C-alpha cells in the first residue's frame, strides 16, 4: 500500500511549485494511493477523507512531497525515528539555508530540522542534481546518521495535463511579448527584470512584459508596488497576481519567450513548462538551471548582468531566425510528463 501525505497541500489555496507537484502527482497516481494527513492531536496519520487513524504495516510506504517540522506536526520526530512503515520523500532545495535573508522566516526556521528528518527516510528523490548535492552536503556538515537512499526525479513539464504544443505559426503575431512566471520576491529577481525592461524600452524596443505571480507577504510587496507603479505609466507592462491555468496557457501561447532571472532554484519548473509549449526561454546562468537549459530551446544570461540580459532578450525579441531555431529545438526535445514522474515513483516503491 502507498499512502500519500497531503497534510498541507490538500488544503492549500496558493498556486506554488509545491502545490503543483503535490496536485499533479495526486492526479496521476489516481486510485493507486490512499491520501493521508498528519493529525497533531492524535500524533499520527489519519485518512484524508474519513479522518480515521491509519494502521500501517511494515511493507507499506508513506510518500510525502511536503515540507514539515516538529512544530508543525507534533510527534512527527518520534514517527520518523521509529516508523511503522517505510518512508519516502521528495526534496526540493536548500534555499532557506543558503538565502535566509530573503526567505520566509518560517521556512528558515523549519528547514534545517526538515532536512535532518529526511536522513532517516528510506528513499529520497531530489528534483535536480544541484539540490541533491546540497542535501548530501548538509548531511555531511551536520554529521547525521544516513539511512536514506537518494536518487534524482524529473518533474513533469505538462502543468495542466495538456498535450505537447506544436505551433502552426512559430512566432506569435502582434507585438512581441515576454512572460515571467514565479512568486514575486527578491529570489525570483523581478526587480532586476524591470531594470532591464526599462532600459530596453528607453532604447526604443517595442515589446510587452507580462509578469505572473502571487506576492511573497514578507518580501514581495516592495517589488509588487514597483510593478504596479510602472504598470500605470507603461501600458506594455502587465501584472497578474492571480492567474488560473487557462489564462496562463493563453499567456504562454502569446509569449515570444519566457524569462527567468532567478538567483536561486531547486529545479526551474517554469522553464520546463514553457518548453513543453514550444516557448523559448532566457534563464539565469545557474548550475541548477543548466540542467534544463543545456538541453536546448534556451539562452542563458549571467546573473544580474544588465548588458548580457539586454543582449539575450533583444535576440529573442528581434532575431526571427534565432527565435525560430529556439522554438523548433524546444518542441523537438524530449521532456518528462507528470504521468512518467508518478510512474517512476510507483515502480520504485512497489518493486522495493
Give a written overview of the molecule:
The strands form 2 sheets. This protein has a 7-stranded mixed beta sheet with strand order 3-2-1-4-5-6-7. A 6-stranded parallel beta sheet has the order 10-9-8-11-12-13, sandwiched between helices. Helix 1 crosses helix 13 (338-351). With 352 residues, it is an alpha/beta fold. It has helices at 17-29, 76-81, 95-98, 105-118, 129-142, 190-202, 221-233, 245-254, 269-276, 287-293, 306-318, 320-332, 338-351; strands at 2-5, 33-39, 44-47, 61-64, 86-91, 123-126, 149-152, 177-181, 208-212, 237-240, 257-260, 281-284, 298-301. It is elongated and about 65 Å long. It is built from 13 helices and 13 strands.
Report the mean per-residue pLDDT as an integer: 93
Indicate the structural class.
alpha/beta
Strand order of the biggest β-sheet: 3-2-1-4-5-6-7
Q: Provide the low-confidence segments as ranges.
A: none
Shape: elongated
H/E element sequence:
EHEEEHEHHEHEEHEHEHEHEHEHHH
**Helix fraction by DSSP (H/I, runs of at least 4):** 40-55%
The end-to-end span amounts to: 12 Å
**Largest β sheet strand count, sense and barrel closure:** 7 strands, mixed
How many helix segments?
13
Strand percent estimate: 15-25%
Task: Summarize, please.
By secondary structure, the protein is an alpha/beta fold.
